[in-house]
Amino acid sequence: MRLGLDIGTNSIGWWIFAQDGQGNPVQVIDGGVRIFADGRDPKSKGSLAVDRRVARAARRRRDRYLRRRTVLMERLSNAGLMPIDPVTRKALERLDPYELRANGLDHALSLNELGRAIFHLNQRRGFKSNRKTDRNDNDSGKIASGAARLEQAIMAAGARTYGEFLHQRRQTDNPRQTPAVRTRMTTITLNEKPEEGYDFYPTRNLLEEEFDKLWRAQEKHHAELTDALHDTLFETIFYQRPLKAPAIGRCLFEEEERLPKAHPLFQRRILYETVNALRIREAGQSDRPLTLEERDTLILQLDGKNVKSATSANVSFIQMRKALKLGSDQSFSHETQNRKGIDCDRLRALITHPDRLSGRWSGLDIDAQWALIQKLRDTENATELEAWLMAEFSLSEACAMNVANTPLPEGYGRIGLSATRKLLERLIAEVITYDKIASQIYGDHRGIATGEILDELPYYGEILDKHVIPGTSEPTDDDITRFGRITNPTVHIGLNQTGDWLIKSSRCMASLTRSSWNWPAS
User: Fold this and answer.
1) How far is CA 187 from CA 33, 144, 165, 276, 322, in A?
2) How far is it, in rounded angstroms, from Cα 149 to Cα 143?
3) What is the CA angle 461-467-469, rounded to 5?
4) In the list 83, 342, 416, 477, which could disulfide-bond 88, CB 3.0-4.6 Å?
5) Which helix (H) or strand (E) holds 7?
6) β-strand partners of 194
7) For residue range 151-173, what is the model confidence (pLDDT) as tens digits?
8) How far apart are the C-alpha atoms of 436 and 447, rounded to whole Å?
C-alpha cells in the first residue's frame, strides 16, 4: 500500500491505494481531509501568539513596576525619607509633587518632602530609547519627535529640569485650563498638515538629570544624603533589564551556531551562490554556465553598487547583459516576468554609500568588518554609538548618524561560520553551485532518513534538530521545550497535526483487514 499526503496551512489531504508487484496503483482504498486551525488570526493573518505575548508583556511590566515601587518605598523609609507609619505616609500624598520638584532646586525640603518628590519620579520615569528595539517600532518616530519638542519647550521656558517645566506649565488661575502633565497622543500640526503625535514626550535622561540636580541641591541641607544612598535610590528607580538574547539555531553541517544574515561572509556567500547559479540562454542551444571571467565581471559590477536603502540594492538583468556584452538573442536563466535583476551584497551596498563609510569599508578585513557590524547591532544607546563611530573612523556627525542607522539584514542563515568559510572558498575559486559543493564537502546533506522503523513517530523537533530553534535539552521538560520548535506557527501546527494523524493512521493500519477499513475520520 502507498499513502499520499498533501499538507496545507490548515488541512492535510490523504489518499491511500494498493499496488501490484511492480508498484503500479491497482485499487483506491480510502482518502479524506483532516482540517485544523492554522494558529493565525483570520483577519490580520498574524500569529495568535502575538496577542498572548503582548498581554503577557503588559502583565510583566506592571508586576515589575509594583515590585520596584515597593522596594523604593522600603529603602526610602529605611533612610528616613519616608515615614514608617503608613497613616503618616499617606498624608504626604496631599503635597504637590511638582511644586516640591521645582522648589527643591533652590530651597531646603524636609526629608519627607524630598522622599515624596523622589517617589514621584519613580511613578513615570520616562522613555528610554533602545536602538535594537526602536528600529522595528512604528511609534518610535513619534516619540523622538515629541522628545525633541519637549527639549525645545524646556529651553524656551528657561526651566532647569523637567519637573520645573511641568510646575511652570501648571501655573494658571483657572484650574479648568491647566495644561496636562501626562503624555497623550494628540493631533499636532507638522508642515501645515495635522497628524497624530505627542505634544511632548519625556525621555529617561531628563528624569535622571532631574534626580541628580535635586539630590545635589538637597544634600547641602541634609547630612543623611550620602553618595551611597544616592546610588542605591538611583539604581532602584532607573535600572532597566538588558534585552534577552534570542535563541539561535544550529548549523546544518557543523556543531556551531548559525551565522547572522548581517555577517559580511553570509552576504558574500549568498552573492556568489546566486551569480554562480546563473546560466546563459541562447535560442536553439543548451543553457551554458558562466565562465570564471564572466562571473567575476558580474561580481565586480554588483560590488560597485552603493545605495541608501535596501530596496534598491540590486542590478537589473539588462545592465548585466550589457556588462557581458551579450547578444539580443541571449538572456539569463533567472530572468522572468516577475524577476528583473538580482540582489547585490546588501550589506556592502548600504555601508559603502558616500553618506556612510564609503571606501573605508573595503579597507577593513573580515574580522574588523564584523566587529563594526556587531557594534551596530548590539549598541543600545545611539549617542554612544555615534560618538564611537566619529572617533574610530573620523566621520562627521552626519555620516556617523547615517552609519548608525544603516538598515542591517535581520535574522540568521542556516549554516555557521566554519561551514560558510569552507563553502565560500570553493564558490570564489570556481563557478560551481552551492548544492554541488555542499555534497562534495558534507556528503548527502539533504537526506535525514536513517531507515529506522519506529512504533510511533517522535516529535518533529527531535528529528529536525538542525531546523528548529534549540530547546533546553532537559529530559524532564516536555518535547517542545526540550527539543525546540520551528518559530512559524503555521508550520509548527501543521507538522504536529501531520505527526498526530500518522500515529492514528499507523494504529489503524496495524488492525487493517480487507473486510474492514478503519481509517481516521476526516
Assistant:
1) 52, 16, 22, 54, 52
2) 10
3) 75
4) 83
5) strand 2-7
6) 189
7) 998 999 899 999 999 999 888 65
8) 14
